Amino acid sequence: MKKLLLAGAAALMLTSAAQAQGVKLTSASASPGGASDISARFLAEVAAADKVATIQVQGGQVLTKTMVQVAQGKNDITASAFILNFLMSRGLGPYSGLGKEKGKVLAGNLQLLFPFHLAHFVLVSFQTSGIDSYAKLKGKKVHNGPPRGGALVTARSVIRLSSGGLVDGKGYIGKQVAWGQANSIFLDGSVDAAVRPATNPASWMPIYMAAGKLNMVSVPKKLFEGKAWTKYTNAPGNVPTVFPISDLAHYGPNVRIISDDNMFRTVSNAGGTMVNKSMGKKLAKALTASFIKHLPDLYRKTAFARTSQFGNVADKNFNFCRAGIKFHPGAVEAWEEAGHKIIACAKP
């Protein structure tokens, strides 16, 4: 009898493992090597290792589109910029075509597994260009993101607020290309500068550094502490970011960090990994728990994992409440069982 019970238990375990391995999911992330891409691929890795699911990841995607796909149930997992959730819920910006009512419904279908900072924004140029401030972007060609993406929305705002009002198409010539072409248009001189998202360190910086000496420019202190910038950094999906320029010393002497007072100032896009609320609670919990369990491995593998706030769920670092972000019920259980507190406004 005992042997029969043991055999039955073993069979049940094998069946459960087989069922877990039989779960196949699709996932989308933005620029290759960035926080959203690293997190998507890491989740796929640990989910497979823990026999939770097999996840197929597509990188280099425009999140404005993939978020709609997940909200519609056409895709399973997507990286999300919280500002895009906010805009979708109101049918604004890149979601104006949805209308307010449809946008609200679709945004309500998206729920969070785990948050992180997608990136902070920097102005970078070759030193030979002479561009060492946002004001000097006037009349220049500037790569400011992919067409209609969340990065484009942020980059345009950063330039306008940091330059004294330069607007894409009037004060400067904005160039939008897919992330796969972003490095080439900077390196071949098609643009004079780029204002783009970066982690610390940024995966694309070594490519730029190999081509020449660079400037990396901070938002001017006076403007950053002014009314307009303060309002912007506290807007839904945004987080003010200030750190010593010494934190960028790893780039070496060929990258000149330009700042008023040895502090680098910019804005970060808060975001995270989202699923449709229809995902089963057990699956969402298992995916989140697997990610949490393996966080030490992510910290070892990815230099910017800690500075991108992976493993942190404090509202002050993400402004969940302002953006109207809700965790998936399964994710709430996983985080709280791991000893973290989810703020009430972010619970479904």
Overview of this protein structure:
The chain is globular. The protein has helices at 2-21, 35-49, 63-71, 82-90, 100-108, 150-163, 179-187, 205-209, 221-224, 227-233, 281-293, 295-301, 320-323, 329-337, and strands spanning 24-28, 54-58, 77-81, 110-126, 141-145, 173-176, 193-198, 214-217, 238-244, 255-258, 263-276. The N and C termini lie far apart (46 Å). The protein is built from 14 helices and 11 strands. 39% of the residues lie in helices and 22% in strands. α2 packs across α11 (281-293) and α11 (281-293) packs parallel to α14. The protein is of the alpha/beta class and 348 residues long. Mean pLDDT is 92; it is low at 1-20. Strands 1, 2, 3, 4, 5, 6, 7, 8, 9, 10 and 11 form an 11-stranded mixed beta sheet that branches. It has 2 domains: 20-117 and 270-346, Periplasmic binding protein-like II (D-Maltodextrin-Binding Protein, domain 2, 3-Layer(aba) Sandwich); 119-269, D-Maltodextrin-Binding Protein, domain 2 (3-Layer(aba) Sandwich), CATH 3.40.190.10.
In CATH, the architecture of the largest domain is 3-Layer(aba) Sandwich
Written as H for each helix and E for each strand, in order along the chain, the element string is: HEHEHEHHEEHEHEHEHHEEEHHHH
The CATH homologous superfamily of the largest domain is called: Periplasmic binding protein-like II
How far apart lie the N and C ends?
46 Å
Q: How many independent structural domains?
A: 2
Q: What percent of the residues sit in helical stretches (DSSP H or I)?
A: 25-40%
Look up the CATH topology of the largest domain: D-Maltodextrin-Binding Protein, domain 2
Strand content: 15-25%
| Net shape | globular
- Uncertain stretches: 1-20
Number of strands: 11
Rg estimate, integer Å: 21 Å
Quaternary = single chain
Q: Report the average pLDDT across residues.
A: 92
- Structural class comes to alpha/beta
Number of contiguous helices: 14
CATH C-level label of the largest domain: Alpha Beta
- Main sheet? 11 strands, mixed
